[in-house]
Amino acid sequence: MNARATGMSGDAPRTRPDKGDYTTLGEESWAVHGGNRADNTTGAIRTPIVMSNSYRLPRDPTTLDDSDPDALVYTRESGVNQLGLQAKLAVMEHGEAAAVFGTGMAALHAAFFSLLNPGDHVIVSNVVYMRVWGLFDSLLPTKLGIEVDFVDITDLDAVRAAVRSNTRLIHTEAIANPDLRVADIAPLAHIAHAGGALLTVDSTFTPPPLLRPLDLGADLVIHSLTKYFNGHGDAMGGAVIGARSIIDEIKHGPMHHVGGAIAPFNAWLIMRGSITMPLRLRRHCENAAAIAAFLADDPRVAYVAYPGLPSDPGHTCAAAQFNGHYGGVVSFAIAGDHEDRLRFVNDLRLITSAVSLGHDETLIAYERYPEERAAVFAPPFRDHGLIRLAAGLEASDDLIADLHAALTTAYGPDH
Ligand SMILES: Cc1ncc(COP(=O)(O)O)c(C=O)c1O
Asked: Where is this region: Disordered (predicted)?
């Protein structure tokens, strides 16, 4: 792979670049040009939104090649905007192929449904997005007879010890939602492959160029496109990216037979968002780093999790893996009681109390967990609840001023 494409900045090209040859292009150029096609009918240099839910059949429909999962026949299975987005994502993640869906959860479900059979065993990080946790905690075991062990993914010995003869999959988030623990992808891939299993990585918090799990040995990378790729808080989508043989199985299986297709308009919006994603991501990360430093220094804050802080348990791994940036999310705990924390969150003026991340505006969510989940979090989160802040694109000084003022409302002056 192009070494130049792994950094955030990209040097000047040494040779005259060609639009379609990604190996000669810098990071931002991949995001701009990947998957773009001029429209043959109008000559428009951007793919129009094609809302049609079906496509004209050939004169003899029996000649249709059923083995091609991308054939343009019916929009549950393939569509013009879906194809463009898939091509762009495959390029950006260094994968052979991509399958996109209507939500991140649809993408995750499709991957697991395709890869797993009754009786298979899965090792899952014990901190993952709550709906993914629910999928592995109840739906997959009870509906499909999948055996699941939740393991601290940062403890490689524990992961190794959990591998069984029927282990088919290890699944983790690169930076975990919500406690931001960092998974070390290369050794996890090694453990999975040594045990005859695959590694799937949900890289929603670490889109490229922060991380490319496939380059580190993961078999599939999965994204909620709803977040940084879309970037503007106005569309949902999900993607699975990896070897064409696995992606084709996912398309021929759950995508075609279960559904979960992305709407053409949403695929178009996310395609547009993807173009500026690397630029925006840099700003999200810079703002998150500034906010984490501010919070870590404030005596009213009991605990800050952010892989960019040198004191964070995931810092060394993150520094080695994420190309010098540490993500756009900061999780923290503030002392006081439940009412104090509600006062703090509700007194914020610029920062909006809402779930999700990767929006242009900064979002904050005060979360509490059921006992069985809370047990795996660091004690400050267990005691004080967890506040997850997803840094937006505003001026960091404005965000810090808002946080400082709301902390003062809730707790009084800091000194
Ligand atoms: C890490 C992670 N994966 C997957 C999802 C699910 O994505 P979606 O909301 O697009 O279904 C989320 C949602 O917050 C998430 O945080």
From this structure: 1-41
Domains 22-274 and 278-411 share a fold: no
- Catalytic hit among 46, 76, 131, 282: 76
Residue 295 CA to ligand 1 centre (angstroms): 26
Q: What atom of ligand 1 comes closest to residue 176's alpha carbon?
A: 1
Residue 118 CB coordination number (10 Å): 10
CA-wise closest residue to 126 among 378, 341, 386 = 378
DSSP E strand boundaries for 144-258:
147-151, 167-173, 198-202, 220-224, 238-242
Q: What is the pLDDT of residue 414?
A: 66
Q: Under CATH, domain 278-411 is a member of which superfamily? A: Aspartate Aminotransferase, domain 1 (3.90.1150.10)
Tens digit of each residue's pLDDT (9 = 90 or more) over 160-186: 999 999 999 999 999 999 999 999 999
Q: From atom 2 of ligand 1, which residue's Cα is the shortest distance away?
A: 129
pTM: 0.95
DSSP letter string over 386-402? EEEEE--SS-HHHHHHH
Query: Torsion-angle region of residue 13: left (phi > 0), alpha (psi -120 to 50) or beta?
Result: beta
Which pLDDT does position 4 carry in this prediction? 40
Determine the pLDDT at residue 24. 77
Q: Is 202 known to be catalytic?
A: yes
Nearest CA to 98 among 34, 55, 52, 27?
A: 34
For the ranges 81-90, 160-169, 222-231, 367-376, the lowest mean pLDDT is seen at 367-376
Q: Write out residues with Cβ below 6 Å of ligand 1.
A: 103-105, 129, 173, 177, 202, 204, 224, 226, 236, 238
Domain segments of the chain as ranges: 22-274, 278-411
Please give the distance, rounded to the nearest whole angstrom, from the Cα atom of residue 368 to the centre of ligand 1: 18
Question: What's the confidence (pLDDT) of residue 14?
Answer: 59
Q: Which of 124, 130, 177 to mutate to test the pocket of ligand 1 (most atoms within 8 A of CB)?
A: 177
Rounded CA separation 268/9 (Å): 26
Give yes or no for residue 6 having a pLDDT over 60. no
Choice among 88, 120, 129, 411 that is catalytic: 129
According to CATH, the topology of domain 22-274 is Aspartate Aminotransferase; domain 2 (3.40.640)
